[in-house]
Amino acid sequence: MNKYKTLRSKITVFTLCAIIIANIITSLIIALLIAIGLVHSRFMMTIWLPIAFLITSGILGTALASIMSKQIIKPLDRLSKATQEVAKGDFSIRLKEDTNVQAVNSLLENFNKMAAELGSIEMFRSDFINNFSHEFKTPIVSICGFARQLQKDDLTEDEQKKYARIIASNAQHLASMSSSVLLLTKLDTQQIIEGKETYSLDNQIRGCILSMQSEWERKNIILTVDLAEVSYCGNREILGHIWSNLIANAIKFSHENGEITITMEEKDNAVHVRIQDNGIGIDKEIMPHIFEKFYQGDSSHKTSGNGLGLPLVKRIIELCKGEIKVESVKDEGSIFTITLPNE
Ligand SMILES: Nc1ncnc2c1ncn2[C@@H]1O[C@H](COP(=O)(O)OP(=O)(O)O)[C@@H](O)[C@H]1O
Ligand SMILES: [Mg+2]
Q1: Which residues surround ligand 2, an ion (CB under 5 A)?
Q2: How remote is the CA of residue 186 from the centroid of ligand 1, in Å?
């Protein structure tokens, strides 16, 4: 509101200045004309004086006001054209915030923010629709197929159990994919983490490791855990997704009898968590894509997952103003290092 008050006062001052300057210049011109004798002073005392004054100051005032208001009108003109482009679906358009009027600059800045936001929503929407239809279709088709098989009368008990198991596992896959998609969509539109509380981060990570005990025991993985005591202020539930996704990946991409080391330390007002495995590692060609939505290194879908884990982890870390680093060598293993500011 204040900005618009400033804009209004600027326009008022512009107009006032234009009128005063036009009047001064007109008076000077008339005085000059009388002084050099081009116009007789008695002639000027007649009706012609106000008429001449009116015409000259009118022309001068309009010219001056138009020059001075260019600063406001020109960018508004650009804004109007850019808005039309956005309405046509071009979200790449950006405007230079180069005027001297702060209120107009802030209008242009807000327009740029809006176009960027619309662009990212549009990109997410089109990527999402492409991947969504592909990833969701497969389990749905499988559920339909096996449900149809189950309706047959000549099935053995083993076959019935097998088909029911496949349906349950596909339904489970769909459910977990839907909740990841919903969470990711929600976090993508969020700018800050809400629902913060102070809690023990080491306890949370330890709890997460324990909840996956059956998985790492099944692969006979040796786990080394060294966590400093850390009290962290954040959204416990959202942070939990970081640890569960990264630890689940470390287990999933480890070989039988593999080794996983999880450490945490706090220094320089930040928490540093390191999750290291000596599993399959990440190929150089795969590395640039691992944080993309729905991307899975193994496109044959032999390993469980949906390619939403790392994008979710990355978004949560972004919202926490932290960072994630990956070092990996194919066939040797991977190290994921997470740094979260903790002041
Ligand atoms: N610890 C790891 N070791 C090897 N590859 C990994 C590891 N973590 C992630 N990746 C690679 O990154 C890809 C994306 O990971 P993610 O988003 O969690 O999807 P998902 O686990 O569903 O495959 C994985 O498919 C895999 O290729
Ligand atoms: Mg994963």
Answers
A1: 249, 305, 309
A2: 22
Task: Quickly tell me which residue has 């492409």 as its tokens.
Answer: 130
Cα(68)–Cα(71) distance, integer angstroms: 7
Residue with tokens 């099935």: 155
> For 305-314, what is each residue's pLDDT tens digit?
889 999 999 9
| Ligand nearest the Cα atom of residue 286 | 1
For residue range 71-117, what is the model confidence (pLDDT) as tens digits? 777 888 889 999 999 998 888 899 988 877 777 888 889 999 999 88
Residues 138 and 235 placed together within one structural domain of the fold: no
User: What sign does the dihedral 68-73-74-76 (CA atoms) show?
Assistant: positive
CA distance 147 to 336: 41
The answer to pTM > 0.85 is no
The total of structural domains in the chain comes to: 3
Domain membership of residue 253 as a residue range: 197-341
- Residue 341 CB contacts under 8 Å (≥ 6 apart), including other chains: 269, 270, 320, 321, 322
Q: Which CATH number belongs to the domain containing residue 145 in this structure?
A: 1.10.287.130
Ligand nearest to the CA of 314: 1
- Which residue's CA lies nearest to atom 9 of ligand 1? 249
- Which residue minimizes the CA distance to atom 7 of ligand 1? 249
180 and 55 together in one domain: no
Q: Which of 160, 189, 218 is the last residue of a domain?
A: 189
| Ligand 1 binding site (Cβ under 6 Å of any ligand atom) | 245, 249-250, 253, 277, 279-282, 286, 290, 295-297, 305-310, 334
- The reply to whether 105 falls in a domain is no
* The ligand 1 atom nearest the CA atom of 305: 22
Do 327 and 284 reside in the same domain of the chain?
A: yes
The answer on 178 and 238 residing in a single domain is no
